[in-house]
Structures are given as structure tokens and as C-alpha cells.
Amino acid sequence: MNTRENFEGLKWQGTERLWKNRVGKNWVAKRILGRGGQGIVGHWSYEGPDRAMKAVKDVVVKQSVAVGPLGNRRLGLSREARALQYFEDSGSPHIIKMYRHLYEEQGNYCMSLDEGTVHRMFMEYCPGGDLFNWFQTKRHKDENITELEMWAVFHCLARGALVMHIGSEDTSRLRWQRNIVHFDVKHANILLGSRTTDDEHIDMPVFKFGDFGLAVDVPPVQGSKYQKEYQWYGTVPFYAPEQRRKYSVDDDIWRPWIKPSGNLLKSFDYGSHTNVWQIGLVMWCLKHRLNYPKWPTRSSKAHIELIQSTLSHRLKTGGLTLGMGDDIDEEKHGCHSKYSKGLNALIKECLLIQPPSRPSPESLVVRTKRGLEMCHRRVGTPLHPVPTSHIPQNLPSSRWFSKDLRHMISTTPEPQRTLPLSDLIHRVEDMKLQGERKDRRMRVQKRRSWAARLNLGGNFSPKHQVVASIQRFPNPFSSSADSSRMRDLEPIIPPGLLAAGAVAGAAAGAAAGVAADIGAGIGEGIGVGLGMVKDRLHAGLEAGAHRLAEALNPPGPERSDEWQDLPQQTKGKGKAPEVSKWPLHEEALVPLPVLYCIVKNFGIFGQVKHTHVKLIGLYKGTTIIQLKARLMKEGVTIPLNRMRIMCGVKVLNDNDTLAALNGQTTIRVEKE
């Protein structure tokens, strides 16, 4: 952006006081983030005296012309606003958020992008810039992108692709009846959000998809006419194979899958596989330190060609994929690679030419998370489940766009689909390739390493193995314990421990002065969990927690004088916040393991000290508790404003009150 364009941008920000829907009082224009032929983007920051109390302190305003001064209609921002509104209820941190709705009003004619009727959007501010600038900074410093950084970027993009595929990052939820294709996935459209405290983004920002101006909800059945309509959507070097049927003189780029005898593709349908291919191309460029893929042209030799890879079963049976000379040398000649075999194989699987052969978004999330966990284990920071929190959208302006787009959102999602059969077959075949002997050898080696850390020497009894397992994994009851951890625990639990667990649970309940059925509930959870360690551990603990909650929360009167008010958010404009009444019962001290069972997916097991819980009761099947706790992590007290990310809950007010409503466990946290 040259000096003239920057001056015009600052002049545009100065006209904010003339807008019909202003950013708001005490909001100060900071700088122009970008400008193109279709729109301009600016950054505003709140500098009022109560800045610390604001949930949203920075906002981005994006503007584009909808109807020109001569009456010629343009696309504006309606397509992007519609796409972002689809993701409004997903709660995903890997999709950029839009605050409120789209605004339409007359421009102030301060520049060409402010003439006629303009569209204006208020969006989430990403302080880290975009992936292109992040990559350029590393190139200028002559720094390599580490394996951990590659997996972190890959996993964030996989989660974003899953949201576009099923409408949420939670695969247990019902999927929606949409199939969003971004069409413009590239370095500049991947934004870097703020750093968080969750384990999946340790020392790394959150990478999220932005610029949905070309996003389309594609139908399941597509004809040739429909496919040709979107063959020019996106950026030329990042076109997917299904967008290129034949060579075009307009872009002068030869695609290796287009041969003189015809196109190698068997299907040209658009879908989630299109997003997966562009994500793979971005990761491939990061691996080879490229700003964009260098396709062969009339004046240059071929840098990219089709290769037959053998790194995985999917690559062996899925056909041809993209590669360069370095990829061929690494695979065929055994040359050293900077990255692991698993990462290289997954990138190549995403770049398979045939769309049906590419991994699904669900499979991509599972495999990138597995790779990210392996990297974290090497540095001693194992991962835990990451709860998603819905950031409050309290923008100063309360006016909504008159042309409401909510009626276009599907409210009847279809049932959740399981992984495709092809993915399951590939997964089984990949495990067979590893071999049972290698798997057994790795498990023995892992146990010996645990014994070496504990200085057990030759005294290697099952008791010591259990101690080693608990010290290696402080929370074996967490849902983040994957199949490998369960497999390591399975052969080292003696049968007598099952009965001992039930007896110990009942004895602990009786010693605490609680009813016997509480101890039976704990014993049931321990017995069921330890009896079926591999698949039913978490389910067993939930069963014990359910019986425990029923015993500790007797049904109270429908109304009494001992009621406590908890604020509850409401939707809609002009409505006062409603107050829900909850029955209040006596205080009770609850042990830490029991607290973990009650507060499902609390996410901070092993980091709580001096816990005091007030059980308030049951409301519509939801356990309501009041929690007073001191949270410790690495010896430092965690502030309450950081707890909401770890607990996955909303901040309802400024009195250190946290709550997760809508059928989830409601928690009130107070300072100790």
C-alpha cells in the first residue's frame, strides 16, 4: 500500500463520526490493515476508562462497495457475511468471527471505495497478522519452521476445515446440511489470533481462516455448468485440480494432471476435499519455504510434477500426488528430511489428484492431533482436550442489518455421519504395515524407560508399573487419554485391583460420613473403568459421577426462601436479562477426584488446590455447584480471567463469575 492509498485510508477512518452505525464512543482508529480493489480494512481500539472491563477491546471494520455511484451492483460483503453467519454458533476459534450483522448505508465519497452504497462489517481483530507475514519473518531471520510449528498450523487448519464440513469442531454433534467450500485458502487468508492458555496452542497463536468473500455452500449434486461457474474462484496458483479441466491461456500455467490425452481427474465436484487440497498445498509450500507453488509455464521448466508415493497405504492406492525433486529424493533415495515421515505422508495425501482419495476433515483432525501430541510429548507437555468457549459479541453498536440472513441458516441438521469406510480401511492397513512385533517392542521399551526414570533397576513389578504410569500421565481418567495410553495401562493392572477399587470406593464414602450408595457409585465407576480400560474408562467414571450427583443432590422444594440468583444471558434486542432460580443446599467438602467426576471436562485436573464446593442442586438434569478454588499451574496462581479459556465457559459479568449455560454444568467461581 503506497503513501496515497494510506492517506486515503486514514481519511476514510476519519469519516467514522459520519457513519449511521458508528463503531462507538471512545473507539479510536489505529491504522489501515489492508486495501484492495474490492474493499478496505481498518483497525479500531477501545481507549475508554473502562477498557479493562470490556470483553472486546479491538475490532476490525471491513468495507466494500455494494452499489456503485452509477447504479451498477457489485457483490459487496453479502456473501462473506452470510458465510460467517453460518459459523456463528460453532464456537470455533479457528474461524474468524463477525460481530453483529452486515450494515448497508451510503458512503461519504472520500475515496473510490466509499462511493455509492457500501457494505460494512465489524469483525474479530487478529493481532498476529496473517500466515504470509509470519512466514516472511522466519525467512528474513533465516529460521526454519520446526516440526511442532508445522503440526500446530496443520491442526488448526484441519479444525477449521472440519467446521466448514460439519458446522462444529465437536464430532459428536449433529452435522448441518451444508458443505462450505472456501475456494481461496492461501497464506494471506490464514490469520493469527491471540495466544491462549490451552494446551493445543502452547507458545503458538491460533491460526484461523479469514476472507470468506468467495465461499460457497455447494450442493451435493453438481452439473458441468455449475462446476464451470466456479472454476475461476480463488487465487490462480492455489486452484484445486477439480477447478482446472484443461489448459487456459489466461493464466498460462500448465497443471501436471492435464495431459495431451486428456485430464486425469475422474470427478470435478467441489466439496470439503477441495478445502483439504488447498490446505495441503499451503502446508507443502511451508515445507519447501515457498510463498506460492511454482507451476510450470511456457517460459519456465516444471518445478512440480506428479509422483507415486509409497509412504502410506492411502498413497499407494490413491493414485498420483504432487511433488518436487526434494520429495522424490527423500522417498526413493533415502535423503534426509527436515520433517517426520508422518507429516510428509499426510501432506502428500491431502495433495492426491483424485478428490475421493484425499482424507476427510474428520480424519485430518485426528491425525494432526496425533502428530501434535507426539511433538509435545517429546518436550514433556502432553495435550488435554480443548474446550471451546463462545466469545461474547458485545459490540458498541446495537443496530442489526435490516436484510436479515438468519432465515437462510439450516435448523434441521442431518444425523452425524461416521468416518467413511475408505478412511477406516486405510487406518487399519496403516496399522498392519507397522507390524505387531514393532508395536510390542515399543511398548516394552516405553516401560523400561519409565523404570529407568524411577530408578527401579531390576525390581520391575506390576506395582511399580502402575506408579510409573500415574507419574508419567498425572490424569489417567481424562478423556484425552488416547488408545496408546490405554494400551499401555491395560496389561499392567492386576485382576485383584478391580475388587479392591470397589471396596476402597465404598470405604472412602463411609469414612467421609456420606451414604453408602455414594461409595457404591464411586466403586462402580472404578470397577467399570478398570475392567474395560481400553474403551470404557471414561464412561465408567461418568456412571459413578452420575450416581454420586444423585446422592449428593437430593430433590429440594420447588420454591423456598433459600434460593440464589444466577444471571442468565438472553438473546434478542431490547430484552432485559432474565434471572433463573436455583435451589440452594448445604455446603459440602468434595474430594478432588470426585470434583473431577462432577465437573465433567473441567480440563485442569491436577492443578486445583484447597477446593471448596457448594452443591446447589439439580436443575433439568444439570449439576449446579458453587466452586471456590485456588488454581495452580507451575507454581503460579492462575487469574480468574484466564480460567474461562481453560474451563470452556462464558464470563457473564465482571464479578469473577463464570457459568456454562444451555444444559452444561453451571459453575460459580469465587476468589479464595
From TrEMBL:
Residues 27-379 form the Protein kinase domain. Signal peptide: none annotated. Pfam families: Pkinase (PF00069). Residues 551-579 are annotated as: Disordered. Transmembrane segments: none annotated. It comes from the Eukaryota. SUPFAM superfamilies: Protein kinase-like (PK-like) (SSF56112). Gene3D superfamilies: Transferase(Phosphotransferase) domain 1. GO terms for molecular function: ATP binding; protein kinase activity. SMART domains: S_TKc. This is Protein kinase domain-containing protein.
